[in-house]
Design brief:
mainly alpha; 2 strands; 1% strand
Amino acid sequence: MDATLSSLLTAVVDRSNGLLWGSVLIYLLIGAGLYFTVMTRGIQIRYFGHMFKLLRTSRQSNGGISSFQALSTSLAARVGTGNLAGVAVAIYFGGPGAIFWMWMTAMVGMATSFVESTLAQAYKTDHGDNTFRGGPARYIERGLGLRWLAVLFSICLIIAFGLAFNSVQANSIAQAMEQAFAIPTWAMGLVLMAVVAPIIFGGLKSIAKVAELVVPLMALLYLMLALIVVAMNIADLPAALLTIVQSAFGIEQAAGGAMGYAISQAIINGIQRGLFSNEAGMGSAPNAAATASTRPDHPAAQGFIQMLGVFLDTLVICTATAAIIIMAGPELLASEESNGIQLTQMALSSHVGEWGGMFIAVAILLFAFTSVIANYSYGESNIEYLAGRRAPLAVMLYRLAVLGMIMVGSVASLGAIWNFADLSMGMMAIINLVAILMLSPIAFALFKDYDAQLKAGKEPVFDPSQFPKLANKVDPKAWPKKP
C-alpha cells in the first residue's frame, strides 16, 4: 500500500512538473516579460547604461545592506551550477542555438526583474536593525490584500530554496570534490556545515558581506578564464557566433528536412535553462532586493540594479560557459558519454589541459556555496514573515534544518527531493507572476516618477504621498514622508 501511494505521489509530482515547466510557466514568464518590455518601452535597452551608472554608487549605505550587497546576494543565488551544468544541458539537447534563446529569455526577463524588484522595494518593511525585509509575500499581502496567497508563496519558497535546493547544491559540491580530489562526500558535508554555520547564524548582514566579497571574485576569475579560451581560439569566434545564430533558426538542418524539430528543441531548451538560471519572475530575487537601502532613495533604483543581475547571470556568465563548450568543437557535442557538468569539464580540459576539470570543480564549489547562503537568506525572510512574534525561535529551527539538509544532500541521492522542489518553485513562480502582473501599474508609475525626476536633472526621491494607490500600504518607517 505504501509503495503504491509513493508511486502515485511520484507520478502526480512528475506530471505536474511536466505541465508547469513544459508549457504553463514558459508562456507565462515569456508573456509577462514581453508585456513589461512593451509597457516600459524597452527599459532594458533604453536604460542599459544607467544600470552601470547606478553600480558606481551602489556600495553606499546608511550602515544597513547596500544596493551592491543586495545585488551580490541575488547573484549568489542566480549564479550556481546552472551556469555550468545548465548551459551544457541546453547545448547538448537543444544544440548551440539554445544559447541564442537563452539570450532572448534574459532580455525580456530583465524587464520582469525590474518590475518585481521595484515592487519589493516599495512594499518593504523596517526590520528594526537598520535593515529591511520584503519580497513577494509582502507585496502580495500589502498590495493585493491576499494574506492566504502570501502564506502559500512563503511555504513554497521555504521548501524549494530554503531546504531542497540547498541539498542539491551541497550534493553538487560533494560530488565535484570527490571526483576531482577524492574527498569523501561525508567529509565534504561536514566541512560545508562548519563553513556555512557561522555565516547563516550571523544573519542577513553577514550573508550580504560574504556575498559582496565572494561573488564578484568568483565571477571575475571564471570570466577571465573564458576570455583566455576565446583569445586562444579567436580565429574561431566568428564561426562560433554564426553557429549559434544558424542553429537557433534551424538553418543548418534545413537541407536535411529537420528544421522544424531543430528550432523547437533549441527554443525549448534555451528558454527553460535561461529561466532556471536568471530566475526572473520566480519571486526569489525580490527577497534580496527588498533588503537594500537604495541610492538614489527610490524603489526603482533597486529595480535597475537587479535588472543588471539578470544581464550578468545569463548574457555574461552563461555565455562564457557556452563559448568554452562550442569552441571545443562539434565532435565533443557528438559524444553520448557526457552532458551536463561533464561536458563543461571536458570542453575546458580540451582547451587548457587536465587542470581544466579541477578548475570547474573549484568553480562549482564557489558557485554552489554562495547559492546555499543566498537561498538560506530567502528562506529566513519568509520564515520571519510567517512566524511573526515567534520569529527568533522559528529562525533558529530553520537554521538547524538547513544545516541538516546540507549534510543529507552531501551524501544522499536527491531525485525525489529535486522533483518536489521543482514543483514548489513552479507554484511560487505562478503566484508571483500573477501578483506582479496585477500590481504592475504601480511599478510603471514608480518608473515614470523616477524617469521624470531624472530628466529634470534631479536625483530621484520617492515620496509615498504622491501615489494614492500606495496610501496606507507603505511602511512609514521604511519610507518616511518627505518634507
